[in-house]
Write a structure and sequence with these properties.
The chain has 78 residues and is of the alpha+beta class. Helices cover 31% and strands 31% of the residues. The longest helix is centred in the middle third of the chain and has 17 residues, at 26-42.
């Protein structure tokens, strides 16, 4: 299994995943990123924070980017 890191990013901010998660392959890492986004979007949002310009950046342990999942893509698919 490979450890992947899932940073939550915008143009001006990055919330770094310092622990990472082990996934069997890139497809499972993609699914985990989508689940993260779904959980974040389903949480109460009393402030009306706009997540549309944010994404999850999935990286290998050496911090090279594997892919990005925009919040808008994940939320559009449900």
């Amino acid at each position: 299994m490979t450890r992947f890191f899932f940073d939550v990013c915008s143009e001006n901010e990055r919330i770094s995943d310092l622990e990472g998660s082990f996934c069997g392959n890139v497809g499972l890492a993609y699914r985990e990123a989508r689940q993260m986004i779904s959980q974040m979007l389903s949480a109460p949002n009393e402030t009306g924070f706009d997540w549309t310009a944010w994404w999850v950046e999935v990286m290998y342990p050496d911090r090279t980017t594997v892919f990005r999942v925009p919040f808008t893509t994940a939320s559009a698919a449900g």
